[in-house]
Amino acid sequence: MSLLGTIVSKILHPFGGGEAQAATPEGSSPSATAPESSAPGATGTVPTVDGKVDVEAVLTNLAAKAGQPLNWRTSIVDLMKLLHLDSSLTARKQLAAELHYTGDTDDSATMNIWLHKQVIKKLEENGGKVPDDLKD
Question: Domain tally for the chain?
Fold first, then answer.
């Protein structure tokens, strides 16, 4: 599974209830840094709004259990840490490649902002209910 697919699955299917639909861009390869497991510490049911997974509720719940402050709302690094994924620059460059980022990957600040927006967009495209303040 791609890194993006793993992110989407951990948020939208935290109990292994299914694969993220269309989450993997064509031509991407599986990630050695992102295991195909359910969300860490996840138990119970997935919160929904209007039949869609409530992304904010899932991530806020994980953040409350993280043991450290993680700003998943604005930081791709913190979002990846929250999901217990490799958040290194190498991993983020891999994610950028999967999402067909055309900017300079050495400008990590700009890339990180773009990555966060794209991941939020992909969560919504794959059935997640995303808070309005996170949409472009």
Answer: 1
